[in-house]
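so my prof wants the structure for this chain in the tokens format not the other one, which i didnt know existed until like an hour ago. anyway here's the sequence
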Amino acid sequence: MMSSIKKYFYALVAIAILASCAADGNDPGVEYAPQMYHTIPYEPLTQIQDKEAGAWLTSSGVDSVAEFYNSNPYNEHKMTMRLPAENTVRYAGTAPMPYEIHKDSFDLAGRTLKNPLDSTQAIVQQGRALYERFCQHCHGPEGKGGETGTVGKVYPGITGYSSISVKDKPAGHIFHVITHGKGRMGAHGSQLNQEERWKIVRYVQILQKK
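here's what i got, hopefully its the right format
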């Protein structure tokens, strides 16, 4: 009789243990080493100082905190992100983003990039001034390249902008070539910012039609 009672008792204990391991809704059940599943990340854009936030997934340690708590205990202000340097300018979505199209992706640049600057007289004149400073010594004053003038003697074979192979190149392609260079032409991305490159593109497009 006693052995039967023990069997029932052990069976009930086993059922209780198995039932406690089952997950249900927001209850994950019993977890082995819960710290491996629910780490405490330091999210830079949030600041949760309540140590009991998300308490239903608290770790099993005595001094542990809930899963959503993410204040940095090593920062004197408990911040997860340091204050920006003095005079830092907040990005408001108007400045150009870093240019990341691969240097060999000329077709992609030509298809996807659009000139953000209007073809106004002021923009064209500024583009011309930049062209004369950075481009004219190789491409010539009218963009004829190695076809005419003394430029051909120094840099023979430079294709003119109005040639069949270049006259229909889109703005994005021209911008990409200015940025990364092509063939014997060196990259100018470090010498001209994006706005200046787009201004040159506006002027080059005029030379394409000559």
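also thought this was worth mentioning. Residues 47 and 54 are 14 Å apart (CA to CA).
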